[in-house]
Amino acid sequence: MRQIKLLSxxxxxxxxxxxxxxxxxxxxxxxxxxxxxxxxxxxxxxxVDNGSTDDTLRVLKEIFENDLHIRIVALRRDFxxxxxxxxxxxxxxxxxxxxxxxxxxxxxxxxxEMINYFQEGYDLVxxxxxxxxxxxxxxxxxxxxxxxxxxxxxxxxxxxxxxxxLMAKSxxxxxxxxxxxxxxxxxxxxxxxxxxALVSYKREVRTAGKSKFxxxxxxxxxxxxxxxxxxMPLRLASMAGIFMCLFAMVGxxxxxxxxxxxxxxxxxxxxxxxxxxxGGFQLLIMGLIGEYIxxxxxxxxxxxxxxxxxxYTHDDT
Length: 317
Description:
Layout: E1 4-13, H1 20-36, E2 40-49, H2 56-65, E3 70-75, H3 80-91, E4 96-99, H4 111-119, E5 124-129, H5 137-152, E6 161-168, H6 169-176, H7 185-192, E7 197-201, H8 215-227, H9 232-261, H10 268-301, E8 308-312
Parallel strand pairs: 1-2, 1-4, 2-3, 5-7
Antiparallel strand pairs: 3-8, 4-6, 5-6
Helix pairs in contact: 5-8, 9-10
């Protein structure tokens, strides 16, 4: 049975000053319990300050001064949620690494169950929400539709899994070797490991602060998940293009037939409607192709996933 000498917990933070003291206390209590019950020998908590504009970094420094298990990775700007998680995984040194949100809506008490699966031989353990009762009505509708759409497009994801997971060190190293910039980690992980365990939990209501995920950011994340992992939209566009060409040929034959067989006065509707329809369809396809080209443009430039301004660590730990 595998043992964990050092457990790394990666906590991405962006404007979380209100919730951090409470979250850190609860997380520390869980990790101390794991040590007392011989689940782990030691731990480190890596807080990634993702370009916060409030007092998040100051609060983290206060926590750092009073806890030798804490490390802080302060990024130079907001590199996005996926970028901050990537930064934390890059700096993690543990035999196993857990990623969890700073608001602890994903309960840290479930880490023990994840460790049990790790000891059984699983390199990847995913936290899965039992339901979405804590979400707003619009977010529930959007999320359910998103999972159906992304699976239809051929992207492999686990339903209701966010970014609460445990990864073995070997899997983290494989992940860190990936060079792609357009990141959708919950799908990237499944490209590296197909043998995983699931831990279900009921997501809690945020105790302080505001969620940083709005419909705009969720839509952007969803689009990344589809475009970065599936070419199905391009194939659908090609099929639609073929269909429109066939439709245009039939229409041309019908127009010639009417012209020859009937004495009709041509109307503006028969002229404008095809123009509007085909024009809108062409713009849609061009926009879709542009999404793929834009991501290729970002990948080719190879700009860094994150840039660290400063790192705080206790040299004696």
